[in-house]
Amino acid sequence: MRGVISAAGYVPYRRLQRAEVKAFFGSGGGRGTRSVASYDEDTTTMGVEAARQALRSTEVRPSALWFATADPAYLEKTNATTIHAALRFDSDITALDMGGAVRSGVGSLLAALRSRDPILVVSSDIRVGLPTGADESVQGDGAAAILVGDDTDGPVIAEYLGGAQRTEEFIDRWRTPGDPRPRQWEERFGETKLLPLTDEAWNAALKAAGVNADQVDVTIVTGPHTRAVKGAGGKLGAKQIADDLSATVGQTGTTHPALLLANVLETATPGQVIALVSLSDGVDAAIFRTTDAIAQYRADRPVAMQVATAADIPYGKFLTWRQIITVEPPRRPEPDRISASVSGRTEEWKYAFVGSRDRSSGALHLPPARISRDGDAQDDMDAAPMADVRGTIATFTIDRIAYSPSPPIVFAIVDFAGGGRLPVELCDVEADSLAMGQQVEMTFRRLFTADGIHNYFWKARPVRA
Question: Which residues touch 419 (CB under 8 Å, ≥6 apart)?
Answer without folding.
Answer: 357, 362, 363, 364
